[in-house]
């Protein structure tokens, strides 16, 4: 560990001072209490603590042993790759850089002062968390690749329940370490990873992380291959992956920001373009009413959950990627929304998506309709539970921008134009929804006709 500490300090100093690639800023927050009290379990780790906010909790103590084992395995890779990094060490000795205080860039990323318990070393704990995460990602990638018997006895990656808990824990806003820590550590062991895989290795930490989270995200492999610049931490990476560049009427893009100073300006400019004036905040009509108006709701396969688009031929079609909600994804949505609420520099796309879906799904009939279309899946969650999710997601949430304003305006205008279709559908549902009501209506019409005829012939006898 001592050798890794030295190597980490050297690499951090080089990136921060010489290359200026690390510019720490606040990006890891405590979840606001008003959100936490709504569903506390969604924001607390179940198995492992990462970073300082939940360290030392007795409920997470059993995982500390596994963290040490994974750290030892990672250090073994580092030792094996030490020969491959001798050239870098020689280069560093030829061009020494004044060392910086290694805690400062990390402390700058948290929105409160980080204190370490007496007798514990902050850097060692940080590196241990980073080593654990990377070794977990590497082991999972190797297991997926060749299903080696080597991992059959691994109590973490060979345990489906544990993997779900790790998905949950590593995507928590309060359970993060700066992304540059993972990048530095991966750069150190990458030569060994390449050697073990015949000269091939995942290109970046982003690829490793998204490969680990991909089963949870229910998205295709394009998210792993895409480039995500300037990630702050793992949750930020998941936020960026949800905004994967797509085509269509709502042109969402990942902001490929090379100059960090322009990030906020780009986000506000994008918000202005996508939702001018924020005139619409959700749909006026629910899913059932839209279908009654002649609008088709169609399942759309894609890389991004927020890739909701419209197409128009003879009728308006809303293309919606399939939605899958379980306990882990429920937590992910809540933490992404909490992240958007906490930071002033990131877009509110996930919050906008939930607002749109909440306006689309207002009753169990809407849920059933979307299930039938294949847009909502997973039948073990009841219809009412889906409704409750979308309502509770937005409790105590105050979005800055709504990114589907243009789409909602287009859909509402179409539905208003064909209002009579909804009226006819309501009439049919009220009076002709069953065979008995249809029979009664026909009988009433026949009786009315006979009554008219009888009256006519009474007034005008032959």
From TrEMBL:
> Is Transmembrane one of the keywords?
yes
Segments traversing the membrane: 431-457
Q: Name one Pfam family in it.
A: DUF247
Keywords tagged on the record:
Membrane, Transmembrane, Transmembrane helix
Tell me which InterPro entries the record gives: DUF247_pln
Task: Indicate what this protein is called per its UniProt record.
Answer: Uncharacterized protein
What is the organism field in this record?
A: Rosa chinensis (China rose)
């Amino acid at each position: 560990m001592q050798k890794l500490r030295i190597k980490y300090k050297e690499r951090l100093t080089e990136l921060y001072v010489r290359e200026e690639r690390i510019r720490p800023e606040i990006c890891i927050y405590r979840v606001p209490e008003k959100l936490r009290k709504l569903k506390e379990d969604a924001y607390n780790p179940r198995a492992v603590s990462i970073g300082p906010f939940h360290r030392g909790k007795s409920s997470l103590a059993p995982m500390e042993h596994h963290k040490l084992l994974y750290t030892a395995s990672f250090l073994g890779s580092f030792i094996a790759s030490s020969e491959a990094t001798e050239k870098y060490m020689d280069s560093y000795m030829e061009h020494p850089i004044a060392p910086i205080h290694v805690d400062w860039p990390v402390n700058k990323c948290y929105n409160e002062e980080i204190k370490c318990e007496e007798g514990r070393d902050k850097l060692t704990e940080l590196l241990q968390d980073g080593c654990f995460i990377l070794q977990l990602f590497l082991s999972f990638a190797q297991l997926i690749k060749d299903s080696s018997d080597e991992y059959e006895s691994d109590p973490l990656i060979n345990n489906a329940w544990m993997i779900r808990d790790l998905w949950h824990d590593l995507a928590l806003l309060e359970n993060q370490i700066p992304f540059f820590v993972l990048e530095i550590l991966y750069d150190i062991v990458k030569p060994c990873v390449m050697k073990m895989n015949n000269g091939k290795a995942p290109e970046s930490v982003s690829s490793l992380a998204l490969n680990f989270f991909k089963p949870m995200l229910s998205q295709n492999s394009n998210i792993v291959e895409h480039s995500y610049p300037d990630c702050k931490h793992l949750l930020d990476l998941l936020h960026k992956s949800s905004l994967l560049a797509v085509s269509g009427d709502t042109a969402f893009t990942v902001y490929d920001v090379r100059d960090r100073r322009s990030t906020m300006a780009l986000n506000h400019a994008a918000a202005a373009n996508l939702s001018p004036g924020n005139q619409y905040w959700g749909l006026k009509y629910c899913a059932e009413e839209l279908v009654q108006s002649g609008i088709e709701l169609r399942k759309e396969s894609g890389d991004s959950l927020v890739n909701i688009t419209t197409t128009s031929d003879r009728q308006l079609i809303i293309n919606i990627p399939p939605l899958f909600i379980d306990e882990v994804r429920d937590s992910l949505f809540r933490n992404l929304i909490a992240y958007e609420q906490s930071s002033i520099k990131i877009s509110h796309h996930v919050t906008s998506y939930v607002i749109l879906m909440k306006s689309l799904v207002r009753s169990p009939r809407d849920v059933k309709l979307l299930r039938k279309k294949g847009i909502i899946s997973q039948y073990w969650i009841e219809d009412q539970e889906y409704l409750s999710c979308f309502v509770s997601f937005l409790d105590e949430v105050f979005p800055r921008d709504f990114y589907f304003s243009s789409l909602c305006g287009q859909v509402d205008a179409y539905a208003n134009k064909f209002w009579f279709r909804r009226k006819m559908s309501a009439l049919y549902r009220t009076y002709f929804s069953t065979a008995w009501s249809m029979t009664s209506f026909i009988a009433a019409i026949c009786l009315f006709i006979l009554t008219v005829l009888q009256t006519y012939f009474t007034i005008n006898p032959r």
